[in-house]
Amino acid sequence: MTRKRSRKKPLPETPVKVTIESLAHDCRGVAHVDGKVIFIDEALPGEEVEFIYTESRKDYAGGKVVNLLSRAADRVDALCPHYGVCGGCSFQHVESSAQIRIKQNLLAEQFKRIGKVDMPERWQPLAGPHWGYRRKARMGVKYVAKKNRVLVGFRERRHPYLAEIDSCIVMHPIVGTKLIALGEMISGLTIRDKIPQIEVAIGDEQCVLSIRVLEPPTDADKEQMRVFGHEHNISLCLQSKGPDTIVPLDGEPEVIPTYALPELDLEFKFRPAMFTQVNYEINRQMINRVLETLNLDENDTVLDLFCGLGNFTLPMARFAGCVVGIEGDQPLVNHARENARHNGISNVEFYAADLSKDISDQPWANRLYNKIMLDPSRAGASEVLQHFKKWRPEQIVYVSCNPSTLARDAGILVNELGYKLVKAGVMDMFPQTGHVESMALFEK
Q: What domains can be seen in the chain, in order of their start residue?
């Protein structure tokens, strides 16, 4: 018996006229057609547009604007010639200060809708450079035989293919202006079709590109990479498997990127594939806001959850009596300890623990902390919040890269654990994108 293959119903090709009602949490425009919600790229509330469908599901559909019939006051022309094709940015069509305002309103709406919590006071948004700010990224690499060209950059919007771009004005210029040169260098290698990605790590002074190789490069390949690195003041490394296999080219020194907080006399070292904030200017402002808010002194015992390589732990240790940092990734914990030694800080402790699991048997978890700082991943921190009853912090500062999980966790802190949301606000960590980075203060 032969089975019939299920075929997707073809998408309508005729443009459909709608008025955009609002913005979704990912900053796409929202409209309705025949009762179904449509999420439309690059559409703003109040605009009348004609769109075509890009996907259709049972409960919703996606679309893109083909004709802009009326223009919102916040709309601007995108600076990047690749905008709309490259998936790296989604918000360049919105004026920069309006981007921040939209994200602030989105945060307040998520608190109310998901957490059932009102945002009583708004922090002034933290803002910095709108272009050339990005210092960490994973770029795709693809050899296109038909064009005899190597593409370097990001995936197309809502497609798995690599976008054909020649520069990126959101990336730091040491890399963002060199995508063509990088592609040309790789196209001259014997393994040009065996390189899927490049990990970008840019410190205050150093730039390291870790090239993932599925086959070992020849000596001639390595020499070509070496020449490119010296010419552009970039350290090129090879990565044969996981992040721990990143090594410099034969005979080249290992370059350890660093970023500094000069006003606190702190310098952080990090390995190329380790998590660090992508926007150093906002990171500095964010750390200063945490320190101002917690107002630490030698009587404070602080718990720093999801501490990474000590980005908040070490600054807080400059003022607090004791700071305990917890991180799920053992290599990051080792590196945090190394950073503490590097900066001569002895009043910190770092432990590795999976904060989504039961931690009640951990010695550090059975102590009291009067202040808690947390900076979880997009998944949020709901599993660890129940331990706050035992720790009894008076103040909690929560840094978030996902307003919906922050709102969910705020609901737990306020409605279940008896805390009050004192203030919250956004930080423009990712200008020109729909990502919303935010901070919230809770007090008992």
A: 16-72 (2.40.50.140), 100-129+279-443 (3.40.50.150), 136-248 (2.40.50.1070)
Supply the DSSP symbol for 219: H
For the purposes of burial, counting CB atoms within 10 Å of the CB of 281, is it exposed (0-12), middle (13-18) or buried (19 or more)?
middle
For 349, list phi and psi in degrees, rounded to 5.
Answer: -130, 140
Percent of the chain with pLDDT over 70: 98
Residue partners of 344: CB distance under 8 A and separation at least 6: none
The two tokens of residue 208 are 């390291």
Segment 75-78 long-range contacts (CB within 8 Å, at least 24 positions apart): 75/44, 75/47
Cα atoms in the Cβ-side hemisphere of radius 13 Å centred on 50: 8
pLDDT at 45: 96
- For residue 2, pLDDT over 70 is answered with no
Residue 10, C-beta contacts closer than 8 angstroms, at least 6 positions apart: none
pTM of the prediction?
0.93
Among 431, 430, 436, 421, smallest CA distance to 111 is for 421
Q: Tell me: the pLDDT tens digits for 193-223?
A: 999 999 999 999 999 999 999 999 999 999 9
Lowest-confidence region among 4-8, 367-371, 384-388, 416-420? 4-8
Active-site residue set: 401
Q: What's the rounded Cα separation, in Å, for the pair 323 and 367?
A: 12
HEC string for 332-374:
HHHHHHHHHHHCCCCCEEEEECCCCCCCCCCHHHHCCCCEEEE
Q: How far is it, in rounded angstroms, from Cα 33 to Cα 35?
A: 5
What does the block give as tokens for 413?
């802190």
